[in-house]
Design a protein that fits this description.
With about 500 residues, the protein is an alpha+beta fold. It contains twelve helices and 16 strands. Helix content is about 50%, strand content about 15%. β3 and β4 form a beta hairpin.
């Protein structure tokens, strides 16, 4: 005897070992292979039929065809199968003949026995046939269900395998496309990094780093004396990036003094980086061999950090370092030159000497001298091409507005600003010149830019004195001659006498 049971949890009371309350799942419970629910249903149907018989006093439905007990046997056999059908036939026979044997007719004993069992025997045959058919269909149904489950399992496996193959195919396609995009991006980035302006080189380095390595977070540092200062930071939260590394830090010693790359994949170098990054390397100029800065990657994909990526990182470091050193040398050459042939304007290196000379002449000959400084406020969203357009418009506006006696000097960053000496021009007149310069810039600049990107400062270097304070003309001319003849010695004049720009 076997009963399929399910545990029952008492409300508000915890379960406890052998004393745990249990309940019988009567829908599936079995006794000797027979469904308990079937036995209860058979007994209930027979009891109901007997109740109707007692109420109608039909003598166990004598003379009623087909007999009501036949439907009880048929339902049990068709619904539950052979075993339950046989039990239903046996119980129906007992319910029919218990206390209700047919009267003896005077024939032999076999005829009487046949009259007693003929109807129950028919129910038994019906139970065997219908129950056997039901068991056969149940077996077929179970086999079909098993086959269906197997088919569904195989379908799930095939679907999972197909999805896996599709994901692998997608990753391979993305890898191939990424390599193609990287090649194109590297070509474009190489064009942007070969610039003569150090700031444009830094902007091109951003494109080169992202095309060649695709990091999530990275920083670019330049060497400033005994420290590395961050000039470019991408992907960081505000205030999260470290801006300065001085000589006391292990990373400074590794990058600047030892000129070696540090990578967390090598256990001996993980302590140098600590939690500041994944890989860091020096920016070295191939021409001079000097270290100009450091490139540090703080976050990169796990798959992307491979031996090839480390080699590409070192190549990019040398590439950026060489380009920046060239741009710095180019700028230093423009600063030290007397005249910029590209802009047709005096270089920044001549401003200090010439401004001192003109200021001394203004003081001796007593004429107004004003200074006008205009600077482009370089914004991060300006591309290299846009900055070049702005610089050209600024240079053209300066050359167009200035008089022949005005002296214009390049700013320290060539093409991004000018300092103008306006002889015989008061501070009010310099304001007028500044207004004209802004109007000319407004006319020359593309519509996407506005003059608010420029900063203008006007300063009076010397104001003309009253007439009674003037010295005699002869002495003025004499002093002018002395000044002109002594121009060669002006380089020895103290630097604090020069105006600040």
């Amino acid at each position: 005897m076997s009963l399929k049971t399910l545990p029952s949890k008492a409300q508000g009371a915890p379960e406890s070992g052998a004393g745990q309350a249990r309940r019988v799942d009567w829908a599936h419970a079995e006794v000797w292979g027979l469904r308990v629910a079937a036995l209860f249903e058979i007994a209930a149907m027979l009891a109901g039929a007997l109740g109707v018989d007692a109420w109608l006093e039909t003598g166990r439905f004598s003379g009623v065809e087909p007999h009501p007990f036949l439907f009880v046997v048929l339902i049990a056999a068709a619904h539950y199968g052979l075993g339950e059908g046989l039990i239903a036939a046996a119980l129906a026979a007992v319910a029919l003949r218990a206390g209700n044997l047919p009267p003896a007719t005077g024939g032999d004993a076999y005829d009487y026995l046949w009259a007693c069992v003929v109807q129950p025997f028919g129910w038994l045959v019906l139970a065997v046939v219908v129950g056997a058919v039901r068991n056969y269909h149940r077996g077929r149904q179970r086999k079909i269900e098993a086959d269906l489950e197997e088919s569904l399992r195989r379908e799930r496996e095939l679907s999972s395998g197909f999805d896996h193959v599709r994901r692998v195919k997608r990753r391979l396609e993305e890898a191939v496309a990424s390599h193609l995009r990287s090649a194109v991006s590297l070509y474009g980035a190489a064009q942007h990094i070969e610039r003569s302006d150090p700031l444009e080189v830094i902007g091109g380095a951003r494109a080169l780093i992202e095309a060649g390595l695709d990091p999530s977070q990275y920083s670019l540092y330049l060497l400033d004396g005994d420290r590395l200062v961050c000039v470019l930071s991408e992907g960081h939260e505000p205030g999260c990036a470290r801006w300065v590394y001085d000589r006391s830090t292990p990373l400074f010693a590794r990058i600047v003094e030892q000129r070696l790359t540090a990578c967390v994949a090598r256990p001996a170098e993980a302590g140098i980086l600590a939690e500041d990054g994944v890989i860091a390397g020096p920016l070295i100029s191939d021409q001079t061999g000097e270290v100009v800065g450091m490139l540090k990657i703080e976050q990169i994909g796990f798959i992307s950090l491979s031996l090839a990526a480390v080699q590409n990182f070192e190549v990019i470091c040398r590439w950026v370092g060489t380009a920046f050193a060239k741009a710095q040398q180019h700028m230093d050459g423009h600063v030290s030159a007397y005249f910029n042939a590209n802009t047709q304007i005096l270089s920044f290196g001549m401003f200090e000497q010439q401004s001192l000379f003109v200021t001394r002449i203004a003081r001796r000959l007593n004429f107004d001298l004003s200074l006008l400084a205009i600077r482009l406020e370089v914004k991060r969203n300006h591309t290299a091409g846009e900055r070049s357009q702005i610089a050209q418009a600024l240079g053209g506006a300066v050359r167009s507005v200035l008089r022949t006696t005005d002296l214009a000097f390049e700013a320290e960053r060539v093409g991004y600003g000018y300092t103008i000496l306006l002889p015989n021009t008061s501070e009010a007149g310099a304001q007028v010149v500044a207004g004209k310069l802004l109007s000319e810039l407004e006319r020359r600049l593309p519509s996407a830019f506005r003059t608010r990107d420029f900063q203008i400062r006007v300063e009076s270097l010397h104001s003309r004195r009253a007439l009674q304070e003037l010295p005699s003309l002869a002495s003025a001319v004499s002093r002018l001659s002395e000044t002109v003849s002594g121009a060669a010695s002006l380089d020895r004049v103290q630097r604090q006498e020069a105006p600040s720009v």
